[in-house]
Amino acid sequence: MVQAAQSRPESRQADTQTRGMESEIREFLTYIKVEQGLAANTQEAYARDLNQFLAYTKNQKICLSQVSQKVISEFLTTLMSRKLSARSIGRVLVTLRSFFQFLVLDKSLPENPCLHIDTPKTWKTLPKVLELEQVEALLNQPDQSTTSGLRNKAMLEVLYATGLRVSELVCLQHQSIRFDLGYIECVGKGGKVRVVPLGRSAIQALEKYLSTARPQLLKGKQSNFLFVSRRGERLTRQRFWQIISRYGRQAQIPIKLKPHLVRHSFATHLLQRGADLRSVQLMLGHSDISTTQIYTQVLKERLRAIYQLHHPRA
Fold first, then answer.
1. Is 263 a catalytic residue?
2. Residue 189's closest CA among 210, 171, 204?
3. 153 catalytic, yes or no?
């Protein structure tokens, strides 16, 4: 493809080879879907990141064979200028590194231009967590005299009891709960299945939901999903975000409430009470324990704040 384009004017050559990058991106996205079996959310994130990079190379008239470490670094710099977080930029770099490694293995490129680029330092600001009183206030918001209230109560209890990602929560299967053993099975990133314990409060809320509210929501329909809408369909991530945001306002929690905030709180509260880091890593489904270690830093910062607030000579 590159050789055929060499006799053309420079602008047309770059345009032709940019279309080649589009083709390579399509092949890569097919590869991560079919052969690697990555989760749909991960596939979408990869596609967004690569389309951003494609738009940048088109604008700069850079073809695939011209992509170098310098080009990648300059692209990441443009993302920083748009006020993207270090974590988001780090994710884009991971995407590009995977894409170009795919091209190297496919012998489309001689080397990966991302190999020697350091990942931006993530978590410059520590994740916010809820105080125990705020968690209690949140869990008490659903009106349990209604079917949707019973469902929402069960979802919040399970979310705080397990630290699931919101995508994992709404995709839980009805048969994934083991009441006799006190745990659930959840499918995480990359289709990996993990087992997470359920607390007493979560089990009680689930039992109430399953015995009364869920049958009423289904109205005779069948569904493998645990949490369903009024139409008997799987509750969406977007809908649950709306629900938890509304309850956060009702509970007068001073920060905007998102499902991931409850996940952060789950991990931090476990570590505060002596849980070991490896166990928390397994429950959260982190592939790398360094991701989990951020919560130990959260604890250090909280202890420092308490010390400065209460010690007479701080």
1. yes
2. 171
3. no
Q: Is the pLDDT of residue 85 over 90?
A: no
Write down the catalytic residue from 260, 278, 300, 304: 260
The CATH superfamily assigned to 132-310 is: Intergrase catalytic core (1.10.443.10)
Q: Which of 2-6, 173-177, 196-200 has the lowest mean pLDDT?
A: 2-6
Question: Active site includes 174?
Answer: no
Q: How many CB atoms lie within 10 A of CB 34?
A: 9
* 13 contacts: CB under 8 Å, gap ≥ 6: 5, 6, 63
Domain at 2-105: CATH code: 1.10.150.130
CA 298 to chain centre: 19
The residue among 54, 283, 109 whose CA lies nearest residue 186 is 283
Told to judge if 273 belongs to the known catalytic residues of this protein, a careful annotator would answer no
The one catalytic residue in 58, 97, 128, 189 is 189
User: What is the distance between the alpha carbons of residues 314 and 309, in angstroms, rounded to a whole number?
Assistant: 8
